[in-house]
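Pilot study result, target chain (209 residues):
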Amino acid sequence: MMTLYDCATAPSPRRARILLAEKGVSHETVQVDLRSGEQLGEAFRRVNPQCTVPALVTDEGAVLTDNAAIAAYVEARFPEPPLLGRTALDKAEIASWQWRVEFEGLLPVADALRNSSPAMVNRALPGPVDFAQIPELAHRGLVRVHAFLALLNERLADREFIAAGQFSIADITAVVVVDFARVVKIRAGDEHPHLLRWRSAMQARGTMG
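Predicted structure:
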């Protein structure tokens, strides 16, 4: 059985959890305590030298250490329901929006948090190397998060899902981003009615834990 190295409070492994839940894939879970720095310890370094979660140990014994690899593997092993698209054009549209959600949403939230939180001094980037905080990146991150929520609200004005007319990995990542933004005190509000409708529908799926 596959094993997911997880952290219940972190956004990145949540993406993998939702993916596996949507696919109905059974797996074991090992919690990694990021708050105490367990990811930097020797025991976890032997699992993932990049010192990040999620990490998925496959049935073949391979260790996948990022969400892109995990999604590609799980989709190939368990093609139903398809979360990366069926047709060539659908795959392209979903991939494009997945990239946009990551680049225009997830990274700005991470910049805003990691470059301002006192708990993350010298930990402005995840991984084994310490990087100093840059306050200007935190400010820019906040501006970009606000712009992203407006973009997502506009995108969802006339559609149920973000891309290709189906629930996809882009919706999974966007749910995590919208919720993650709360840590930098940014929430969808009355000015985002389409986004709020979509987020409520996503919650009703029962897999967003």
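One observation from the pilot: The chain is about 50% helix and 5% strand. A full batch analysis is planned for the follow-on phase.
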